[in-house]
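Batch manifest, entry 17 of 40.
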Amino acid sequence: MVITKKIVPVLKDRKAALLAFTPAFLTASAAAYWPLEAGLVMPVFAVLITMVIGSLLILRQQAEAARPAAPLVPRPSRRAGEGPAGLLRDLAKSAGAPESGAQAVQALHTRPALTLVSGTAARPERFPEPSLLPSIHRLSADETSRIRLVTQAFEADRIELHLQPIVSLPQRRIRFYEVLARLRLADGTLLAPVEFLPILECAGRASDFDRRILIRAMAVARHLMSRGSEAIVGVNLSAHAIVEPGFLWSLAGLLDAEPEILGRIVLEMPQHSWRHLDADLKAALASLRERGVPFSLDRAADLRFDPKALADLGIRFMKLPADLMIKAAEQQDGRYAGPELDVRDFASMLRRQGVRLIAERVDQDDMVPVLADLGVPLAQGFAFAAPRPVKPEIAGEPDAPRPFGLEDAPTHLRRAG
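Output type: structure tokens
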């Protein structure tokens, strides 16, 4: 007996036929031993025919149930050009995604407009910072050790300040100081921001770091005022800290605690941050601007800007890379790339809006005359002076192993920052 998936008992060959026709045989044999009356012949004959037909139906059902299942047919292998790409194409089809590049472009242009929830304000689409995205990169032992050392140094508050002067052209008189932070590890290694700041940003400590730098910069500004200096101090704000909810609002509280230095601290923000301000960030910047806090555009990647729009945001200083301006000046139309303004008009247009242009990364002496011819009023770089560390007691730092001041610090420092 064979059991099918429907749990139907199946009899095969002679046994099945014998069992199916047994009732008919018994009925026919009984008529030979017990004579039938004339009126019962037809009914008995009808019963025999019914039994035979039923037996045939039973045999047919048994035969279908005993029929073996269809063999599994292997799926034909993919052609050579339909490996992983073909699999991804099938997945895209199942998800309703466009198959070709042209279809993807068409789908992008036909994307429905963003539907706003009732009671919410329109907000531009935001994309996550690349550095904050999850990574499948497995950290090596050296990277893990570096992360641990940086975290320990930050928790121990081993942050040191260095100041690099910004001078006027062509006189080269100091008008401005930019605060550059360094982090000293337990073994005495001094790290520049490019080496430790990404680690703090990934750990969510960028805003805490910027607040510590601002507090130390305020102490430096008080020291300069006590010496009768009119120089102001610029503090860089990281892009991660700027977009953190409430961070810019918290800076207003720090500056309100010392109103005598308002106007002496310049907050420097990257060009990318200025171009992606939402309503809350603009409101926070307006609050700081009303308190008399000047702003500076820093870390510019191109020369495209609107002087009036910058002035309306409260920007009073604008830093542009010296090499970009010099390359633009070498062109006949004075443009580095794209539809930006003539670089020869930068300084005058900004000055009319109350914004002063600063050429940064001036590392060679032959760059200075070119910048002066362009009318650049301020410049910063190793051609004038290297960053110099501040005495710990001036910036309110914990005791550090390098007690140098602004006037007696060595000039041979790493060129990072």
